[in-house]
# Entry
Amino acid sequence: MVRQQPVDGPAVFPRTEFYGGAMLSDAQRGFIDRSRVAHLATADRRGMPHLIPVCFCLTGLSLYITVDEKPKRTDIPLKRVRNILENPAVAVTVDRWDEDWTRLAWVMLRGSADILPDGDEHDRAQAWLRERYPQYRTMDLAALPVIAVRIQRVLSWGLLKGDATKDALDPDGQRPI
# Structure
């Protein structure tokens, strides 16, 4: 089911939501694929939020994030991993900021996250992440967990298509409105 809601004020960019099969439009998928950083939101069992920037790859209806070798505490699991184990509901936002507010855009993915300690899916995800981020190619990631976000809902707003012209586009980013 697709639902569109007008934005308060001048209706320049409609917000689009996808439910059920969590279908991503071509414009949403392209916007995500062109982006280099996302923000992962988790919450512990009490609902205390935790938000961090992450590297990611999107394949099908799953978004993957690996724990990497950047300096972190090693005596306890990372807060994002602990939160997911307590409360698997997560959100991931990919956005574009610009001083020219006609270029603003975001895609939010909501779903349930799994922690993959190893296995075929874990290994494939890390291979995709190494392909996307050259910095990962020199890191020993194999023993580190992967977060697999199973996308259940997609929301987006703004100018998602290409490098964004100043023209407003329809919700799937295809033609001026």
